[in-house]
Design brief:
- The protein is about 35% helix and about 25% strand.
- Helix 1 (about 10-30) packs antiparallel against helix 2.
- It is built from four helices and nine strands, in the order βααββββαβββαβ.
- The chain has a five-stranded mixed beta sheet with strand order 6-8-7-5-9, with helices on one face. A four-stranded antiparallel beta sheet has the order 1-2-3-4, covered by helices on one side.
């Protein structure tokens, strides 16, 4: 694996989620004896934790798909960019660039191509655009959230993708 990151939700979401779960459980608990006093805590806290882990499940990876491929050279053969369950062979990626936080709104708004592949997380400020050069695929580019865009671009450019 040449690059890997998981887009975890911010720490304050965990604090806010736990506080909300405790507040809701306390509302049910008020004046309720027996099982109704502790059951909301047992149900709501794990439910909030599960939801936050589910929001954080997106992974961005660059991996070697062919074990015999040379992952240290500049060739992109046998390498894939994986975002969630989607995967993109790097030999069809021609260019990549950072989309800064200031341009994110435009990239996701009026400039967005309807055929583009987008994996956006609101809590991640920066994105990377990977332009495709595949005549068999109508997708013009991938637009993906990443917390370390420079590191991802360095890995992509080291394997034949032009970085801007």
């Amino acid at each position: 694996m040449l690059y890997a990151e998981r887009l975890w939700v911010p720490l304050w979401w965990w604090v806010a989620g736990a506080a909300l779960a405790v507040l809701l459980a306390a509302e049910v608990h008020m004046g309720a004896p027996g099982v109704r006093a502790w059951l909301p805590y047992v149900l709501l806290l794990p439910l909030v934790a599960w939801a936050l882990v589910a929001f954080s499940r997106l992974r961005v990876q660059v991996v070697a798909t062919d074990p015999s491929s040379d992952s240290t050279g500049s060739s992109s053969a046998g390498l894939e960019l994986r975002v969630g369950k989607a995967h993109l062979p790097l030999d069809v990626a021609s260019k990549a660039a950072v989309v800064p936080a200031t341009a994110k709104s435009a990239a996701l708004g009026r400039q967005l191509d309807p055929l583009a592949f987008v994996q956006h997380r609101t809590w991640v400020k920066q994105m990377v655009i990977v332009v495709l050069d595949d005549p068999d695929d109508p997708t013009p580019y991938w637009l993906i959230s990443t917390k370390r865009p420079e590191n991802l671009l360095a890995v992509l450019s080291a394997h034949g993708v032009e970085a801007r």
